[in-house]
Amino acid sequence: MLSRLTVAGRAALIFLLLSCCALAYYLVFVPVMPPPPPLAAQQQEERQRQWAQQRQLRREQEQQQASAEREHAAAIEKDRQRRKYLCDLAASCKRYSAARLDCAPAADFKACIQIKMGPHADDQVYACGGYGVGAVTALPPDTPSDFECFLLIRFGL
Fold first, then answer.
1. How many CB atoms lie within 10 A of CB 106?
2. pTM higher than 0.85, yes or no?
3. Over the stretch 31-81, which tens digit does the pLDDT of each residue have?
4. Is residue 58 included in any domain, yes or no?
């Protein structure tokens, strides 16, 4: 019977025999894994619960850290805005002080100040002490220096 088969037929027959031998070997010698005992399933569930709790705790910590970073950035921005306001106030008060000296002999002091200080003179004048008699209002002690103001306004530092 083998002599009548072609080369391709013989190869197919050999392949079929080898496949049957491999299947028989697998069925006989490879052990079947028993299902995990109930204790292992409980331990697995407990591990999964612990992992879920750890992930939740990590998420909460990350959210708290992000919130703290946002608050810190907001505080820095608020401080920068205050320092910029103080720089603007210091510059306005310097202009007002010089304008007061220049306008002292003028007949209309208020009109002279408005001409010298520009369109927003009233706001600047009241911030620096008003039109009354007396010295210009002292600036707060935490007013930045001229160099710090230059850096803040020019470079946003």
1. 13
2. no
3. 777 766 677 677 888 999 999 999 999 999 999 999 999 999 999 999 999
4. yes
Q: Quick check: is 26 in a domain?
A: no
Structural domain includes residue 139: yes
Q: How far apart are CA 96 and CA 13, in angstroms?
A: 109
Q: What is the chain's alpha carbon radius of gyration, rounded to the nearest angstrom?
A: 44
In a domain, 137, yes or no: yes
Per the listing, tokens 């591990």 go with 47
The structure tokens 């392949």 sit at: 15
* Distance from C-alpha of 9 to C-alpha of 2, rounded to nearest angstrom: 9
| Phi-psi category of residue 119: left, alpha or beta, with phi > 0 → left and psi -120 to 50 → alpha | alpha
DSSP collapsed to 3 states, the chain: CHHHCCHHHHHHHHHHHHHHHHHHHHHHHCCCCCCCCHHHHHHHHHHHHHHHHHHHHHHHHHHHHHHHHHHHHHHHHHHHHHHHHHHHHHHHHHHHHHHHHHHCCCCCHHHHHHHHHCCCHHHHHHHCCCCCCCCCCCCCCCCCCHHHHHHHHHHCC
Q: What angle do CA 6, 11, 16 make, to 5 degrees?
A: 125
Q: Which residue range forms the structural domain that includes residue 78? A: 50-157
Q: How many domains does the chain have?
A: 1
